[in-house]
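Sanity check record (used in CI):
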Amino acid sequence: MIEKVIGIDIGGTTIKMALFDLTGLMLDQWHIATNLVNDGEEIPDEIIVSIKKRMAENNQSLDEVLGIGIGVPGPVTEEVVKRAVNLGWTDFPLKQLIENSLDIPVALVNDANAAALGELWKGSSKQIRNIVFVTIGTGVGGGIIVDGKIINGTHASGGEIGHIPVQAEEERICGCGNTNCLECYGSANGMVKTMNQLSNKTVVTNTKEIFDLLQAENPQAQKTLKITIDYLARAIAGIVNTLDPEEIVIGGGVSEAGSVFLEPLKESINDYAFPQIAGNFNLRKAVLGNQAGMYGAAYQVVNTLTKKGRE
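Expected output for ROK family protein:
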């Protein structure tokens, strides 16, 4: 019997699931639509039904599954989903509902933290234990892993990199309700807003258009990139100077721009890094894409099993 774990990544439109062995080899993957009817109350049952059906179709037994990890878009504790706005959940007992039905241990993890764990486990070229993961897309998210363990925090809000306050000459209201969070300036939305402000009119609606203008050496696009990177670099350098991680991993849609974005970001972080760290840190692009959450959710289970085995 091959011992297995299941990694699940719950998104606003799709729930992705995968079966892994304990080394992280993906054995199977599938997905179902996210049912948001009645504040997502059908989601647990639909996950349970889908797992049972998939395992039966492949002539596999649930007895071989040692645990299920679930990445959720919102803060979680060990027992409940504190808040998942996109799903309609508040203090939602997801762990208990699935454990009671399948009789398999469940581990909950925030989705950005799950992606960070996935990159730690299967994205790095060498075995590492400490990373700062930053996802730069519509907003700015992240996960911080120290000694192989995700930093979830006292209020299930660890790793909220996008909500580091920044100093700016203007005021932008963040979706969280605060003013001038990093994601107001360092995200894709922030870049678009900066570009249009510099141009005194709406010239772009997404970051791809900004990077296209960069290739044409558009001065507003060049200035937008410089401003955006400076905000991000100051914040990331602050984290790096505090934690001294082995890797900085950049994911999210903006990272797809590649070296035109990542190289100046690394240079700028270097400018703000502590002298002992400057020039000695590794920054790379995330490589697992939309599979990172499934890998990380599975790793949370494997890590828990490994710790129990050592006790």
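The chain has ten helices and twelve strands. If this sentence no longer matches the regenerated tokens, the check is flagged for review.
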